[in-house]
Amino acid sequence: MIKAILFDLDNTLLDFMQFKKETAKSAAKAMVEQGIPATEKEIYGKIFSVYQEKGIEYQKTFYEVVAPYSLEPGQAERIQQAGIIAYLKRKFEVLKPYPEVKPTLEKLRKKGLKLGIVTDAPRNKAWQRLIMAGLENEFDFVITYNDTMEFKPHPSPFKLALARLNDNAVSGSEVSGFGTQNRKLETEPDEVLFVGDHPGKDVKGAKAMGMKTALAQYGQHFRTNDEADYVIKKFEELLELAK
Length: 243
What we know:
The longest helix is centred in the middle third of the chain and has 22 residues. The chain is α/β, with parallel strands linked by helices. The protein has two domains: 158 residues, HAD superfamily/HAD-like (Rossmann fold, 3-Layer(aba) Sandwich); 78 residues, DNA polymerase, domain 1 (Orthogonal Bundle), CATH 1.10.150. About 5% of the residues have low confidence. Strands 3-2-1-4-5-6 form a six-stranded parallel sheet, sandwiched between helices. Strand 2, helix 6 and strand 3 form a beta-alpha-beta unit.
């Protein structure tokens, strides 16, 4: 019996990669209009090259794109800021949940299920995205990278989630000592379904903790051999799994 569902955030609840693509297009267009000596296609490619090298959450992406052109400082700053502003404007337009996410979450809560998020995103970015998507009040808790300073599939984020499900007031630094073997918990690991798009992070990490897993195939951008218990092609399919 499923008593709780935990979710990854990006590409599971929110169409994160589409958001990144659309904002990169807008930024590239603005930077070209301000005089960067390249085409929109070239700048778009350079933005994603920085993401691949420095990480999708890297905060100096547009600086890294502009710097190699060795432009006059004022021109370089104008181009960089034009890219940042275009990115932010487009962000508010395109960062939305996948279809049926909010009504499905509401139905799951009515069933009495506990709902939580376990994300590798920084705390500030996770909450920005949730608020922009109108999902900030849908979860019992949100665990971010800042809570354990470990990325999935490390066990710490999953252990902290189990602790929160069982109303244990533990900090991220105390998670390593959290265990389930000595007492009966209100919510056992095998009563938790973890939903995520990344087999190597979400599925692997949750399975190692004894949770059931569902691969969000609609948001999947990664291919590994870690097999989930379930595969969902639409978010609302969770209602069937939670019966």
